[in-house]
């Protein structure tokens, strides 16, 4: 029979899973407490929560949430990064941190109900942030409109110049 603390942990993880846009699993074996604190601070700045949960409890929470239990990824000393705001942030921050700290090893992840292997997480980390993608989309959408507006403005300006020239010619006669 599971005890209250384990049930509370499963419920807490299920709540995080309901709010998360993506998650990344990493092996943190060998990281010092100072490095883990540094990693948590970097993740927190990006709206990502890092949680160390027993693998068995994480599998139960994933299964009860209707997600893939990720059995092949949840082995050994693992931590889960929950991307609450931007789905790309956990992969970006963990990948950048793993480059400088070889003890941190990304194992896999999950986004939109699909499992991501290490290569998938790396590809996700290479994507631009949500804000950059939105600004590119907005630029793409406004570019044709601004060209149409400029063209219309030039057409109206030519008509005004023509009327002005006719007006000057009549005034001169």
Describe this structure in words.
The protein is α+β, with helices and mostly antiparallel strands and 173 residues long. The chain has helices at residues 4-19, 33-45, 55-64, 89-100, 118-126, 130-172, and strands spanning 22-27, 48-51, 78-83, 105-111, 114-116. It folds into two domains: 4-127, Alpha-Beta Plaits, CATH 3.30.70; 130-173. The chain contains six helices and five strands. Helix 1 packs across helix 3 (55-64) and helix 4 (89-100) crosses helix 5. It is elongated, with a radius of gyration of 27 Å.
Which descriptors apply to this entry?
173 residues, alpha+beta, five-stranded antiparallel beta sheet, 6 helices, 5 strands, 60% helix
């Amino acid at each position: 029979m599971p005890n209250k603390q384990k049930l509370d942990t499963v419920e807490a993880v299920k709540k995080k899973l309901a709010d998360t846009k993506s998650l990344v699993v990493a092996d943190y074996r060998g990281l010092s407490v100072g490095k883990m604190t540094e990693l948590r601070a970097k993740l927190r700045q990006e709206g990502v929560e890092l949680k160390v949960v027993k693998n068995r409890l994480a599998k139960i929470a994933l299964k009860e949430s209707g997600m893939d239990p990720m059995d092949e990824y949840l082995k050994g000393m693992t931590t889960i990064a929950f991307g609450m705001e931007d789905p790309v942030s956990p992969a970006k921050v963990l990948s950048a941190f793993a480059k400088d700290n070889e003890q941190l090893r990304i194992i896999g992840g999950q986004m939109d109900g699909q499992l991501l292997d290490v290569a998938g997480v790396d590809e996700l980390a290479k994507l631009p942030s949500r804000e950059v993608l939105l600004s590119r989309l907005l630029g793409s959408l406004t570019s044709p409109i601004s060209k149409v507006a400029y063209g219309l403005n030039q057409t109206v300006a030519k008509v005004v110049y023509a009327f002005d020239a006719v007006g000057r010619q009549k005034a001169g006669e």
